[in-house]
Design brief:
It is found in: Golgi apparatus. The protein has 1307 residues and is an alpha+beta fold. It contains 29 helices and 49 strands. The longest helix has 24 residues.
């Protein structure tokens, strides 16, 4: 379509009549009626005018029924200003005619009302040749024309300059012609003209009856207004139907009437004035000037203008009927007279071509006929007759093509495309322009626009872009999407033949591009835009910048963002080009900011990771340098520093080594004029430039909070919470819930108020120069925190430079560490943890606990050289050597090195290796408590008693091998064993028949036993040979004395600290008990515990085992001693724990003391095991047995009777417990013992029982007795044994027997 490339910048074109292209037009604007809305007067605020314009612009469609009762959909386009040059092209394209004028103002007096009427009439003059009707909307007046009482306001609208008053008065006499008559003069203030150019248009002005075409200003300020002020597209509504309106209550007043008789008119006016003077008590209605011909709408206020929309609809309807009448007049024109209209059916530049032309020629007649058809198509399209308009366009195209009228043929083709677009894409209406927020970044605008383009699909339903060629529309003669493309291409080609129609061609190319964008044919749309670029237009520098800026916006809609950015950059460069006499650096900077999105740049450093350096780094660096230069030239040094900071921060990975040095030095030089501060910067156009932080110079590779040392780590007393009740034994949900509730941003440790806190960082300097950080400290929020500023000098290109950031919290609470701040290269940066790539959390919360004391610990024992401590809070250690059973003392001294007193102190010994560690260490709690509180700088001491604990029951040997040499004197029998845990050796030893004494009468009548199968009652423990080295038996015990202390404010909040003293205790063996057994004592209340002792030391040992009883044991020798012990009562002993109770009883009551030449100690029976027979002998039976035979008490000897003799037996059971025995069963068993391990219980034919051999006892109360009598008869001679036993009915394992059984000899 076009091939010239650079004509737009340097080429010239013939003089043109149109002002400049309207880049906001769409193809659907061809069917719209153009109405100009102007703000007049100074009383109405601009904000109120904007509200009124918004309400008016909502009436963008009106449904009207014509004379044949057919619905017509009329569309309206409202503009705040429209140049007269463009209005002159209304004969070529009727949608360019300004058909209506609406002025909006406010008045408070008659003079103001006259002035507003004058301004309205002067505005009508500029559009007199095309204007159909007008309305003047005035606020501050009642419906009857009287002043509204509350309408006075001191706010003056800046729209009108007071200097314009003289201008209006000067031209007042020249504005009195009728509405439809020829206008001889016009008057329009320049201030009104500049104020109304918010839509990118300008109004004409004329003086002395000559219409002057205004010259374009060469200043770039109008372009800035064009860029910053929303154009008329912003105020066009997209609603299809108007809301229902209430009936009009506004009164319209006919202010001027044409006098039929001049005398009568003058006399009537004077009479009216006299009548007004007489009615002084009534409110006076304002009187319009006699030359005011427009219809006025009065409203008190904006809130009381409910009928505004209805009145506007009435106004639009009047425009439609006038348009319809003109269409019908042209439609009814005779064919023979059509050539007479050729002078009016021409473009402005064609009028001189028809001078002296033969209009009667056949060619001109056909030309006139074709042009009339084309204009009928335009009028039909505006009148809502799409099908008729398309028919007229087709007819016009055929006729104009035959006479080679290329300009009007192009207009007919463009109108045909516009009508077809209205048929195919009725939803293709102008959408409200996105208003730029002052804090909205360019990247966000890009996302909005891209999303809007990507989701738009204005093709007919069910039609894809691939099916455009074969689509056939519903309306007859309507173009298909593919034909629309071809017709637009042909129209643009024909427009290109006329240099005077360059603006028309430009607008047609833009309209075609918009349609193709809706069809999602971006490549074809780009072709039309490229054609618009190469069209040579005679434009000023200001208009060229507007053109490039508009092309940039269109390329953005197409999706060619880089190309859009290119044109935006060209527009920016035109602002400060050498040909521009008034360079505008501020506007250049503003345009450069807008192109960043096309080059994948954003001034927000947080969005760099989003783009991930998309685009072209070298080009991006060039643009950023231009931003720095323009900001510097416009005098904003702070902004220049900000841009250079962003350049160094964002583009650092793409810079060479020399560029890094150069840009760093430039930044340092710029920061001398304006220091780089981490605060947003507001630009003149309202854009907010976010702060930029030098995160990479230097960059932090490691950011780690240093917890307090273990012995200074604060802890808090945790309240024991009840576990959640659940019917399940185990559920995995609670564990996951607790894990999810953990705050990952909270530090696992706490810091203490008033104590130094540290954060370790590893820094990297990517610059080839030494980087001096004059200040580096932490950024925190929450509690008061005193930060210490560090001065750091990082060598060039170093990547592992350690540093420490310190501070001191001044109050308790939660300290949130947000990041760190640096001051380098003249820029202060606040780097947040959330913006660091190697940080997983946006912040770190640390709990600051109230002030706590600190403790220093020392002991009187030497420190241990080697100590494997399992506690990290150990501050000192002590080493002690002991013998088993020996006790030593260790003095511990505590010194308060803190600033608050120690008010609370708890001590606890802890060892994870040996549970016996609790028996090794003892101390006095009262002694410690008496020394509290410990003031700062004071000391306290206490004594720890250390006992050499050991396993005296057998030597601690991990082998199960028994050395027969140590027990050779005791033969081992095949007694059953009682096995302990699998990890320990069996404690069942051999049974010696020689040690089993003969039971006496006392023991036989009082012993009770547990039901068992018999067996030995002697236990032994495997021991090593005396020849084994003593070093192998030495045991080492490690323990930590944990000191839990608190004081000051921290004590009140439940916080404390821990420190520990590590003890390494070495215990050597002394005495072992290798075997033990139980024997009846001299009284029923006692028994003898027989022990075999072995001296494991190298010295002679004296053993004291009872009062006034001792024995000497040679080294590596053994001896046997009997220890008298009281029986163990079974009161309050749980079932199954009888053996444990007996063992504890023995451990408590047996006291073995040993004495060596230089020390002494005590051996314990801890770890002893008992067999059921031993338990039977150790425990006191709850039942006392008493049995008589034939009235005599039984004795431990045989009782003789004859066969067949009746034997009477009485049994008494007495309860010795303090509780009742319930549900007992008493029974007797008679059997014969063959003395070979076999017993015969089947004696049914050998004896008989008279009475019950088994009886149930419901209850025996404490101290009460139960008696049972029976008789026995033996039939066969022999030796019989009778066994009496009593057991609980609920548990047969708990059995009490009468021992020994009765021996009855039957003769």
């Amino acid at each position: 379509m076009r091939s010239a490339v650079s004509v737009i910048l340097s080429g010239t074109a013939p003089e043109q009549n149109m002002s400049y292209p309207d880049y906001s037009q769409t193809p659907l604007d061809h069917q719209s009626l153009l109405v100009v809305v102007r703000h007049i007067g100074r009383q109405l605020r601009t904000k109120q005018f904007n509200r009124a314009f918004e309400r008016i612009s909502r009436i963008n469609q009106l449904k009207v029924f014509d004379s044949q009762n057919q619905a017509r959909h009329i569309w309206i386009r409202y503009l705040r200003g429209y140049p007269q040059e463009n209005n002159d092209w209304g004969d070529f394209q009727t949608h360019r005619k300004a058909l209506g004028l609406i002025t909006v103002g406010q008045c408070n007096s008659q003079d103001e009302f006259n002035e507003l009427c004058r301004i309205h009439e002067s505005l009508k003059v500029g559009y007199a040749f095309t204007l159909y009707d007008s309305r003047c909307i005035l606020f501050g007046l009642n419906q009857d024309g009287t002043l509204y009482e509350e309408s006075h306001s001191s706010d003056i609208s800046p729209c009108v300059d007071p200097a314009d008053d003289g201008f209006h008065k000067k031209n007042e006499s020249n504005s009195g012609s009728p509405r439809d008559s020829a206008v001889s003069s016009t008057a329009m203030p320049d201030s009104l003209q500049s104020c109304s150019n918010s839509g990118g248009s300008s109004a004409p002005s004329s003086i002395g009856g000559i219409i002057n075409i205004p010259k374009k200003s060469t200043s770039s300020d109008s372009l800035q207004n064009y860029l910053e002020t929303p154009n008329e597209d912003t105020f066009d509504s997209v609603s299809e139907d108007s809301s229902s309106r209430s009936e009009s209550v506004s009164a319209t007043i006919q202010y001027a009437r044409m006098e039929q008789e001049a005398g009568l008119a003058g006399g009537q006016v004077n009479a009216d004035r006299q009548s007004v003077d007489k009615q002084s008590t009534e409110p006076k209605s304002l009187v319009a000037p006699t030359n005011f011909k427009a219809r006025t709408l009065f409203y008190p206020t904006m809130e009381h203008s409910q009928t505004l929309e209805t009145d506007i609809e009435e106004f639009i309807a009047s425009l439609f009927w006038i348009l319809e009448s003109k269409r019908m007049d042209k439609l009814g024109l005779r064919k023979a007279d059509r050539h007479l209209l050729l002078n009016s059916l021409c473009a402005p530049f064609e009028k001189k071509d028809f001078v002296g032309l033969d209009l009667e020629s056949k060619n001109n007649k056909r030309r006139a006929d074709g042009r009339l058809k084309k204009q009928l198509g335009d009028l039909s399209l505006q009148a809502g007759l799409l099908s008729e308009a398309i028919s007229h366009y087709h007819s016009a195209a055929d006729i104009l093509k035959s006479v080679n009228d290329w300009l009007w043929l192009a207009g007919a083709l463009e109108g045909m495309c516009s009508a077809s677009v209205a048929c195919l894409y009725p939803q293709l209406r102008r959408s409200p322009t996105l208003q730029r927020n002052s804090s909205l970044q360019g990247s966000e605008l890009t996302k909005y626009k891209v999303a809007a383009i990507g989701t738009t699909n204005s093709l007919p339903p069910g039609l894809d872009p691939e099916q455009i060629g074969g689509y056939k529309p519903m309306i007859k003669n309507c173009l298909t999407p593919a034909e629309i493309l071809e017709k637009y291409r042909e129209a643009v080609t024909h427009y290109g033949k006329y240099r005077q129609a360059g603006i028309i061609e430009t607008e047609a190319s833009i309209k075609a591009a918009l349609v193709l964008i809706e069809q999602r044919q971006t490549l074809h749309a780009a072709d039309f835009l490229q054609n618009a670029v190469f069209i040579s237009l005679q434009l000023t520098e200001d208009e060229k910048m507007q053109r490039f800026n508009a092309l940039s916006e269109l390329y953005t809609k197409v999706g060619f963002h880089r190309k859009a950015a290119f044109f935006k950059r060209v527009a920016a460069m035109r602002c400060v080009s050498p040909h521009n006499p008034h360079p505008n650096w501020a506007l250049c900077h503003s345009l450069l900011l807008q192109l960043l999105e096309g080059y994948k740049l954003s001034l927000n450093p947080n969005e760099i990771s989003t783009y991930n350096f998309y685009g072209w780094p070298r080009l991006q660096m060039q643009v950023m340098q231009e931003l720095v230069g323009t900001a510097k030239r416009k005098g904003n040094n702070a902004l220049a520093t900000r841009h250079m900071t962003f350049l160094v921060h964002a583009m650092l990975p793409h810079m060479s080594r020399d560029e890094r040095r150069e840009f760093a030095q430039q930044l340092e030089a710029l920061s001398k004029d304006a220091e780089g501060l981490p605060v947003p910067l507001a630009i003149d156009n309202g854009l907010i430039v976010p702060p930029v932080h030098l995160q990479h110079t230097p960059s932090v590779k490691v950011f780690k909070l240093v917890p307090p040392t273990p012995h200074l780590k604060p802890e808090k007393v945790e309240d024991k919470k009840l576990e959640e009740a659940s019917p399940f034994v185990y559920t995995p949900f609670s564990a996951h819930r607790d894990r999810g509730a953990k705050d990952v941003t909270k530090a696992e440790f706490s810091w203490v108020e008033g104590e130094l806190c540290e954060v370790n960082v590893i820094l990297e300097n990517p610059l080839p120069i030494e980087l001096k950080v004059s200040s580096m400290c932490l950024i925190t929020e929450g509690v008061k925190f005193h930060v210490n500023s560090n001065v750091i000098s990082i060598p060039a290109e170093s990547n592992m430079f350690p540093a420490t950031l310190t501070g001191k919290p001044l109050e308790p609470g939660t300290l949130r560490i947000l990041g760190y701040s640096t001051y380098t290269l003249g820029v202060k940066s606040n780097i947040r943890l959330k913006n660091m790539k190697n940080m997983l959390f946006p912040h770190i919360d640390v709990e600051i606990v109230p002030a706590l004391p600190s403790l220093d610990v020392s002991t009187s024992k030497p420190k241990s050289e080697f100590f494997s401590s399992f506690s990290d809070s150990v501050v000192t250690s002590a080493s002690i050597s002991l013998l088993m059973g020996e006790t030593q003392e260790c003095t511990v001294t505590l010194t308060n090195t803190g600033k608050v007193p120690i008010e609370h102190l708890e001590m606890k010994m802890d060892s994870r290796l040996d549970k016996q560690i609790l028996d090794i260490f003892k101390w006095s709690e009262d002694n410690i408590m008496s020394q509290l509180p410990i003031q700062p700088g004071a000391s306290a001491s206490f004594t720890v008693y250390i006992y050499g604990v050991g396993d005296f029951i057998g030597q601690p040997d991990n082998s199960n091998t028994v050395d027969n040499s140590s027990v050779s004197s005791l033969p081992v029998s095949n007694a059953p064993s009682v096995d302990g845990p699998s990890s320990l050796p069996s404690r069942l030893g051999a049974i010696s028949d020689r040690l089993r004494p003969k039971r006496t009468e006392s023991s036989a009548s009082n012993r009770s036993s547990v039901k068992s199968g018999g067996g030995s009652s002697v236990l032994s423990f495997p021991v090593r040979s005396p020849k084994v080295s003593m070093a192998s038996n030495v045991k080492n015990y490690e323990a930590v004395l944990n000191l839990k202390y608190s004081g000051g404010p921290g004590f009140k909040t439940g916080h404390f600290r821990r420190c520990g003293v590590a003890f390494n205790v070495e215990v050597s063996p002394t005495l072992y008990i290798t075997k033990w057994d139980t024997l009846p004592g001299e009284s029923p209340a006692q028994f003898y515990l027989v022990l075999d002792l072995w001296n494991a030391t190298d010295h002679e040992m004296e053993v004291q085992y009872a009062k006034n009883k001792q024995i000497l044991v040679e080294k590596a020798e053994s001896c046997r001693i009997p220890v008298p012990v009281d029986r163990c009562p079974m009161t309050n002993v749980e079932k199954g724990k009888e053996e444990q109770a007996c063992c504890e009883h023995i451990v408590t009551n047996v006291d073995l003391k040993w004495v060596l030449p230089e020390c002494s100690g005590k051996a314990t029976m801890q770890g002893i095991r008992l067999t059921p027979p031993m338990v039977q002998l150790v425990t006191v039976s709850p039942i006392h047995w008493e049995i008589t035979i034939n009235g005599e008490s039984v004795k431990p000897e045989e009782i003789r009777f004859d066969a067949g003799e009746m034997i009477s037996v009485n049994v008494w059971l007495r309860n010795h417990l303090k509780e009742a025995l319930e549900d007992l069963s008493l029974s007797l068993d008679c059997f014969q013992d063959y003395q070979n391990g076999r017993c015969n219980y089947k004696l049914d034919s050998r004896f008989a029982v008279i009475g019950n051999d088994s009886v149930l006892i419901p209850e025996i109360c404490p101290g009460s007795s139960f008696q049972h009598a029976l008789s026995m008869i033996f039939f066969v001679p022999g030796l019989y044994k009778v066994d009496f036993k009593c057991n609980r009915k609920s548990s047969e394992d708990c059995v009490w027997k009468f021992n020994p059984p009765l021996d009855i000899q039957i003769n």
